[in-house]
User: Which sequence fits this backbone?
């Protein structure tokens, strides 16, 4: 039982689970816009998420050398290295314009992690901007890249989906920020730190209203998609309402991060 627990913890800590969520959103984009299954694009996002998230989470620890790397961190480093090779392989199968856009998002990730500017912390520690940078990166990787690689028109429906996807990721991060409230540096000025937990929940719930109604503005409105979105809204609302600082780490790192994957499954089933 202990081994299963450790294996599950490794699955979460190594960012495989969040990578599956990103993969699911890429597949959602391909489905919504009628794009045939593009394996290089889907796996580029999957392995790229593993590399990016592990770099963000463990880079500071590795550079500071505050402690010896445990076996678990060595395994995560090995997985990240293998994922880097997979990312490179997939990258060279993408269209040239997609590669350029992907490099732009890579630069944003590096800016988010590394202190490029003298006497300034990295963007991850800039007060109040973390949630916006992460949400924009998710929109770019899961929505913009698949469409660009498929030479799709970035028109009216794309803009609506950008807003919807941003709201979805923004709300997911709000749950994380509520649960991490006691552990986050006060200087980060996360949303719950600035307006309180209850107002954060209200903000998240209010944002789900335009998320639903924007579906009616799409040129290719599909009733079943609206039904699926309503299921998603109910599910996310419940996670927001019942989130608090005393919740288990699995509440956010597993259950909340499973929402995009569950959303994709609902679309496939319906």
Assistant:
């Amino acid at each position: 039982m202990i081994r299963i627990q450790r294996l599950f913890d490794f699955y979460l800590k190594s960012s495989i689970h969040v990578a599956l969520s990103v993969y699911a959103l890429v597949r959602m984009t391909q489905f919504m816009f009628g794009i045939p299954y593009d394996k290089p694009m889907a796996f580029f996002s999957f392995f790229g998420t593993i590399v990016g998230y592990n770099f963000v989470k463990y880079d500071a620890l590795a550079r500071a050398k505050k402690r010896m790397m445990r076996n678990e961190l060595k395994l995560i480093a090995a997985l990240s290295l293998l994922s880097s090779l997979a990312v490179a392989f997939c990258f060279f199968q993408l269209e040239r314009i997609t590669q350029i856009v992907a490099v732009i998002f890579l630069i944003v990730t590096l800016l988010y992690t590394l202190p490029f500017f003298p006497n300034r912390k990295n963007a991850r520690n800039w007060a109040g901007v973390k949630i916006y940078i992460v949400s924009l990166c998710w929109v770019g990787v899961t929505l913009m890249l698949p469409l660009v690689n498929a030479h799709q028109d970035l028109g009216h429906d794309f803009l609506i989906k950008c807003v919807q996807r941003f709201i979805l990721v923004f709300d997911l991060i709000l749950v994380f920020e509520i649960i991490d409230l006691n552990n986050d540096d006060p200087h980060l000025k996360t949303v719950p730190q600035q307006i309180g937990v209850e107002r954060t929940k209200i903000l998240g719930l209010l944002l789900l209203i335009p998320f639903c109604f924007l579906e009616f503005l799409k040129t290719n409105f599909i009733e079943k998609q609206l039904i699926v979105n309503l299921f998603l809204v109910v599910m996310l609302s419940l996670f927001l309402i019942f989130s608090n600082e005393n919740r288990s780490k699995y509440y956010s790192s597993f259950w909340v991060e499973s929402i995009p994957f569950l959303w994709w499954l609902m679309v496939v089933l319906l």
Q: What stands out?
A: The domain at 1-153 is CATH 1.10.357 (Tetracycline Repressor; domain 2). The longest helix spans residues 39-64. The chain has a mean pLDDT of 85.
